[in-house]
Structures are given as C-alpha cells and as structure tokens.
Amino acid sequence: MFLTYDVTREDTFVNLSQWLSEVKQHATEDVRIYMVGNKSELEDQREVTYERAVEMAKANKIHRVFETSAKTGYNVEELFATVAKELYSQAKKEQEAPAKTEP
Q1: What are the chain's domains?
Q2: pLDDT (0 to 100) of residue 46
C-alpha cells in the first residue's frame, strides 16, 4: 500500500493520518505500507522534511519512506524495485513456512 503526499504541500502530509486510519480499518494486519513523498525536485518549495516523514512513519509503524520525483524520475525505479523484492521475499517465506493447523 502506498500513501503518497506532496513534499511542497503540508496539507497533503497532514491528510496521511486519515488515509492511514482507513488502511488500518480495512486492510489485513500484515499489509506493508510505504510512504512516498513526491516532487522532491522542488526543494526550494518544500514544506515537509524527509526527517519529519520518517518520524511519522516510525510512530505509525509504516514500513518505509521514500522521496521521489515523477517529473525527473528520481528514486521511482528504486521504489518499485525495493517493494517488488520485499514482496517477493515475503511471499517466498510464506510459501516455505509449514502450514499451521488449528487444534
């Protein structure tokens, strides 16, 4: 699950709390949540620091934080490659784990 915000708009970051609440209410407990700050190329217009995003992620048990730029492509490929590797690894572990039986 990706929660995305615009690093140049505080309100989009603040709204993440509501989106996170919706995710936790409707998704399974093991859902992986990734927080993605977009428009990282607009450093001079930044309203949300990366450090602040990391703090929020830690406080809300969000799996990872990335900053990207859809305009320049910065970190976009890395984001999707990382997520794909982590999901593949998780699926492989689940497949290899012995099935649990109910008593």
Answers
A1: 2-73 (3.40.50.300)
A2: 98
